[in-house]
Design a protein that fits this description.
Radius of gyration: 17 Å
Low-confidence stretches: none
Number of helices: 6
Strand order of the largest sheet: 2-3-4-5-6-1-7
Shape: globular
CATH superfamily: Gcn5-related N-acetyltransferase (GNAT)
Largest sheet: 7 strands, mixed
CATH architecture: 3-Layer(aba) Sandwich
Helix content: 25-40%
Order of helices and strands: EEHHHEEEHEHEH
Number of strands: 7
CATH class: Alpha Beta
Mean pLDDT: 93
Structural class: alpha+beta
CATH topology: Aminopeptidase
Number of domains: 1
């Protein structure tokens, strides 16, 4: 999404997609289009997520991409979502990928990101709607529901996720979530107080 807001404490959180109507694609601005996955997007994908602070380095990002995505070429082709600009270059991306945070394999929203040069044009929302629609096609029953992991530093993205029908996960720590089970519920509550406070600040009218 955007570059992380490091002024807030880092606390990972989970969100789960609630009941929702089948989404229609959001129209992309002039000059942008969805594109099928091609290997030429591999290195721009890594550079984008390094730029956004989501990956520590280009080299580690390449290794991650190879291990996480290229191990399943069929899923990569089907479930990687790409938006390109008028130069046919990567502007934003999302994916629908398997996660194990709840102790069983289930699909999650993975690695949503929009290049800073292309932000504030509705690309992130369009990517998310396309991701939700793909989930509905692959899991018509909606069970288990789609989920995502994020963190307090991504509070602007959390606001968008809330508007799209995702709800905060509240409850005991899921078995595959990397946190301290002794403090998970307390920290999770703290995280959502931080996120909601930051969102409320943005909604206040400016003098």
């Amino acid at each position: 999404m955007t570059v992380l807001d490091t002024s807030v404490a880092h606390i990972p959180v989970l969100m789960v997609l609630g009941d929702h109507e089948p989404p229609a694609d959001a129209p992309l601005p002039a000059g942008y289009r969805f594109a099928a996955w091609e290997p030429r997007f591999r290195e721009p994908w890594v550079r984008l997520h390094v730029l956004l602070g989501q990956l520590p380095s280009y080299e580690e990002g390449l290794a991650y991409f190879e291990q996480a995505y290229e191990a399943d070429p069929a899923a990569l082709s089907r479930q990687m979502i790409i938006v390109v600009d008028e130069k046919d270059e990567l502007a934003g991306t999302s994916s629908l990928w398997q996660g194990n945070h709840f102790g069983e394999p289930r699909l999650r929203v993975h690695w949503v990101g929009v290049d800073p040069a292309h932000q504030r044009r509705g690309l992130a929302r369009a990517l998310m709607l396309r991701t939700i629609r793909l989930f509905d096609e692959l899991v018509p029953s909606g069970e288990p529901p789609l989920y995502l992991t994020t963190q307090t530093e991504s509070w602007p993205a959390c606001g968008m996720y809330l508007k799209l029908g995702f709800v905060p996960y509240i409850g005991p720590m899921p078995p595959g979530f990397a946190a301290d089970p002794e403090t998970f519920e307390t920290r999770n509550g703290e995280a959502w107080r931080i996120i909601r406070a930051k969102l409320a600040q943005c909604d206040r009218p400016r003098p």
